[in-house]
Structure formats: C-alpha cells, structure tokens
Input
Amino acid sequence: MTGTMDRDRAVDLMVRLDRRFAEAKDDLNALDAAVGDGDHGTTIQRGMAAALHAVQAADCASAGAVFKVAGDGFQRASGGAGGLLFAQIFKSIGQAAGDGDVAPGDLAKGLAGAKAMVARFGRAQRGDKTMLDALGPAADTLANGGDLAKAAASAANGAAATRDMAATQGRARFVADGGRGHIDPGAQSVALIVETLAAV
Amino acid sequence: MKKMLNKVEEAVDEMIDGFVKARPDHVKRWAGNPRVVVRANQKGPGKVGLVIGNGSGHEPIAVGWVGDGMLDANAVGDIFAAPPPELICDAIRAADTGAGVLLLISNHAGDVMNGEAGADLAREAGIEVETLWMYDDISSAPRDQLDRRRGGPGTTFIYKIVGARAEQGAGLQELKTLGESVRDATCTLAASLTPGVSPLTRLPMFTLPENEVFVGMGVHGEPGVASMPAGVADDIVAFMAGKILDDLPFRQGDAVLAMVNGMGGTTLMELLVIYRKFAECLGERGVELAADPLIGTYVTTQEMGGFSLSLCRVEPSMIALWNEPQGAPFFAM
Output
C-alpha cells in the first residue's frame, strides 16, 4: 500500500488476509507443532474468517471502522492468547484512523500501539521469541519513516530471527531449549499480515 | 486420525447441547450467551459467583463442574483456546447476584490475558470481580517463582473447597484468600505416555519415543523435565511422589488431600496401580490422608495417555469444606 487506504481498500485487505491465512494455515500449524500444540494456523485463520465476516456484515462507513470491526470480530472468534494479541493489531490501527481513511501515519501509530499492547498483555520483550519480534521491527520501521515494503521486510527478518531465540513466555518456554531452531509461528503470522498490508 | 465428531467447528456447541439435554435438572445455557453454562437453579442474592473460562477439549473440567457447591458459570471457549474477554464477561454477568464474582484463572498465557481483560469488562459494567490465578505444576517453575507455575489438575482442590465455602455464603475477599491458601499448599506433577489427538488438526499433538515416559509434561503436551524408561510403573510413581513431597515440602503428620488424575487415555486399572504405589510413598513420608483420594479422569487432553499426582496440605476447616456435598454432574468424588 502507498498513500491513503480508503474503505474499499480496507475491505479488500481483509479479503486478502482471509485468503492468505487459509493458504498458510497448515504451514503455521506445522510451525506451532514444534513449539506449541500445533493449532496456531487454525486459530488465526478462524479469527481472520470471522473478521472478514464481521466486516462484510457491518457495512462500515470508513477504513478506520473496517479495522475496528475486524479487530472485534477477530477477538471474539479466535480465542486463546493469539486471538487477543492479534486482534490488537487491527483494533489499534482502527483507533488511530478514527472514522476516516487510514493514512500512513495511522498505520505507524497503529502498529506502535499494537506493539505496546502486546508487550503489556503478553508480558513479553523483544528477543523472547514471540510475535513481538516481528511486530516490533515493523512498527519501528514505520515510526522511522520507512514505507510498508520496508516494514514487511523488517517483519520477515524479525520472524526469521526467532529461529535462534529461546522462548521465555507461552507454551514454547516448556519446549526443549525454549524451541531454539524453530521459527515462532506468531512472528511468522505478523510477517504475513504486514506483507499483505504492503501488497494491497 | 479418527474422532466421533461432526463438523469440528460445531463440536463445542454440540457438546454443550448434549450436556444440557443430559442433565436438565443441573445445568442450562445462560439466556444471554449460548457459550455460557450455568446451574439450572441459579442462586439468589448474597451468593458470591464462582466462574471460570477455559478452552474446550479438557472435559470433564470445567463445564462438567458447574453445579451446587462448585461453579456457578463456565465460559466455554473453543477447542484448546481460552475464551475471549467478552465471553468471560458474560459468564461473570451470568453468575453475579450482586455479591460479586470470583473468577478462577488457570495460569496459562491465554487464560490469564483473556481472563483479566474479561474481569475488567465486567468491572466496567459495575460488577465487583476478583481474580484468582491458579497454579500447582511443580515442573513448570521452581518454588521461588510460584506464580510462573502452570495450572494443572491439582487446581481441582480449589474448585471444591472454595465452591463449598461460597455455598455457605462467604464473602468475595474471604473466598479469594481461601483459594490462595489452597493453591499455595498444592503440588502436582504429571507424566505422559502417548499424545492426544487434536480435534482441530486430527494429528497427534506431540511425539514421544515408544519406550519413554515424560515427567512434567503439560496439559497441551509441553515437553517435560525428565524422561524415564517406560515399563515399571512403581519406579516412575516413586520418582514423581518424591519430587512432590520434597517441593512444599510435605512433612510427617501433615494432613493431605490426594488426587490421581488420568489424562484421557489411561485406564482405571492403571490409575489404581499408580495409586497403590503413591499411597505407599505417602505412608513412608508419614503424611496422612484427610479424606479418600480422588482417582479418575478429571482433567484431560483428549485421548492423551498419562496421569498426574497431586497433593494438597489441608487445615481442618478445609477438610470440612472438602467433605461438603456437591452436585456437579461430572465431578465424581
């Protein structure tokens, strides 16, 4: 995405995210099987499908409203830690945009807000092998004036870097050596979201 | 792998359908949300509500424990996923009679986040809510980091004892303090033999070597702290009992409640063989059972093969509460 995102593009983004996570579900489940209970892909896909359904049912007046409705729909449907944490990304962008279009500054503010919420709710820091290791770099890239393509690259690099990290939070901390050697599925999902945002 | 389910997305709702049809005198759906199960005869004003929200797939806990002397309401989440804050808030509303609600939270990341957020929503709606984090699994963190321990089958002692006291009309703060006392005197250690199969993916949730038993594995198959050769049950039970007894530590003359929990795929024959050795270890330490032990399948992960041992050191007042009658449909004492 370049420029400002209007209502129709926001809806299109939700359609694409729903499709992207339907495709990625099995791969994400496989990543999660190594460090958790193997259902992360299913959790996110269920949340995304519900987010899209809520958006299509709501007849939103603005892009900001699309994000808010998507976030609420995601949170209600997805459940678990992932449901609450990933919903913050949509809710936070929606909050930044208010009742208008989503400007680049809103995305930067939204991702920064989501980063803070995830750190607070998840009691996680960068380097703990969580979604924050992709969300943090993406948010920081936008905050420093980078565009979405750069943010997507930051998120992808951040996700890849979780392979060498040991988990201190969530179920992964109970896996041998904190799951070192495996990419964190939550970080991978963040990378997919930012990549899709950049492409819409 | 094979499961007796229809559409997996509808499995939780169909489970609740079956439950409320099977026990209409005990439980029903709350009118405000089909994922909230409440007692058929809800209590009048003055009774503090006892509530928990949890992912499905671990039955009979917790939906089967809604009933007199136990839970007032349960927020039934999706399979292995903590329910979202809105659903937990609805369960709190359902249980509130004006005297406040104690929300039990089993200490797992998703349950804590969604539970605390749900409690906040209920407070915003004007309901007095306290949360009680429950943890007992000694393999998940050392004793000096108690609140990093996971919630495990030993939390059963909290449901029963706090539930009985709530029934007698105790206030919210007293119940929370009582729950903390029970929690801080409870130790659990689990061992896994074979994985459960996730209804979502139809795949085994983890893999274990054929001839090994993993001690300290969590309810979601989080790998354990020690691997032991499978074969002689007594050796494994004695090892685990020693760890539990040394953790609190339990001392000669302590009065305890004991529990042997099967995780879904371990037979009553095995559980009784396990209990036989567990009782012997307790005897050697000189701790005394304050009541008959709980032995059965209470906290499960589908057809996972495995079991847990739990002990709770109890005061006389707790023993009396433990022995109070209760009427939850799937809590067999």
About this structure: The CA atoms of residues 1 and 200 of chain A lie 5 Å apart.
